[in-house]
From TrEMBL:
This is Putative aliphatic sulfonates-binding protein. Transmembrane segments: none annotated. Belongs to the bacterial solute-binding protein SsuA/TauA family. PROSITE patterns: PROKAR_LIPOPROTEIN. GO terms for molecular function: ATPase-coupled transmembrane transporter activity.
Length: 347
């Protein structure tokens, strides 16, 4: 059963957490190390990712720090270079809350990682299939017998599998190079692969550099999920609610301040402002951010692909994960004005 955030328990001291190497070649996708949890539980560990623009805004504005200041709670930020890295950090409890695509959250839950989605940060078209001029790749059927770069365990990887299935191309007839997103772009531009399952903002930067998005399908992109480890939800429900409140505040701010949001994303990701603007044009922030049936319906279509690709052992694990993945009460109770009182009182 999903955890309730109504009960409050004593927070135990945690040992030093696992250091995770977060790889990537472009600025904003560099390496990082998960910091240690402070004794006594006085720290909330949250990831930020260039594929989650709200996390960039919140981090750069210092809004979580302001919201937790009265509780004397520290905030530690850990960068995620992709959903797979966010899942690694969540599984190791190196972060309490992490950003993934919906498909990646389902994959992690299906394989035993005790996470639940507590909020939605966007409905993005962040994945597409990308090629370079001169490869001869013009449509999905052209990928048969070719090599494609993709980051396994992330939305672009599952986007690729769905596109192949739709086009009638067997997955085993395509060679997948398992590369982190930024490395996939580099492999495409260096001619090492014929195509790449891309992810924004790296994809938008590649597109501006001449890459071609030869297959797009917004329905194959799953939502942006904000996930929390179940231990954190059980031990610190009020802290989880504060994070979701700050996300509600940031969502309203980002929609009202699109130019500054693009500037912050540009600086954090090390990309041109025009690229950041293109990313945000493909990112819908004006959504019902409460996770529920609509998102689960999308994931129900993705689940069998996990089994067919041997990413999950059987459909029973998928069904169990779908039944327990969502904890909607935090998003239902989200209050931007509550966050505003804490944040604006400190500015």
């Amino acid at each position: 059963m999903p955890l309730s955030h109504r009960s409050v328990r004593t927070v135990p001291a945690l040992a030093a957490v696992l250091a995770l190497g977060l790889t990537g070649c472009m600025a904003g996708e560099g390496s990082g190390e998960a910091p240690a949890q402070a004794a006594g539980g006085g720290t909330v560990r949250v990831d930020w990712a260039t594929y989650n623009p709200l996390s960039v805004v919140i981090k750069e504005k210092g809004w979580l720090e302001a919201a937790f200041a009265e509780e004397d709670t520290e905030v530690e930020w850990v960068q995620s270079a992709g959903s797979n890295k966010a899942n690694e950090a969540l599984r190791a409890e190196a972060v309490d809350i992490g950003s993934t695509a919906g498909s990646a959250a389902l994959l992690a839950r299906s394989n035993g990682t005790p996470i639940q989605v507590i909020d939605l940060y966007s409905q993005p078209e962040w994945s597409a299939l990308v090629t370079a001029p001169g490869t001869g790749v013009q449509e999905v059927t052209d990928l048969e017998g070719r090599t494609v770069a993709a980051t396994k365990g992330t939305d672009p990887y599952f986007f690729l599998l769905q596109a192949l299935d739709e086009a009638g191309v067997a997955a085993e007839d395509v060679t997948v190079q398992n590369l982190q997103h930024a490395d996939g772009r580099a492999a495409l531009e260096n001619g090492q692969v014929d195509a790449w399952a891309g992810l924004d903002p790296i994809m938008a930067a590649a597109e501006e550099n001449g890459a071609e998005l030869f297959y797009r399908n917004v329905d194959f992109n799953t939502y942006g999920f904000l996930n929390a480890h179940e231990n954190f939800l059980e031990e610190r429900p009020e802290a989880a609610q504060t994070v979701v409140d700050v996300y509600a505040y940031a969502r309203e701010w980002a929609q009202e301040n699109s130019a500054e949001t693009a500037q912050l994303l540009s600086e954090a990701a090390g990309i041109e402002l025009s690229v950041a603007e293109a990313v945000l044009e493909r990112t819908n922030l004006d959504i019902d951010h409460v996770p529920g049936d609509e998102q689960l319906a999308v994931l129900e279509k993705v689940g069998p692909i996990f089994v067919d690709s041997d990413d999950v052992a059987d459909q029973e694990q998928i069904d169990e994960a779908l039944a327990s993945l969502v904890e909607s009460s935090y998003a239902e109770d989200a209050d931007a004005s509550r966050a505003a009182e804490l944040i604006e009182g400190r500015q």
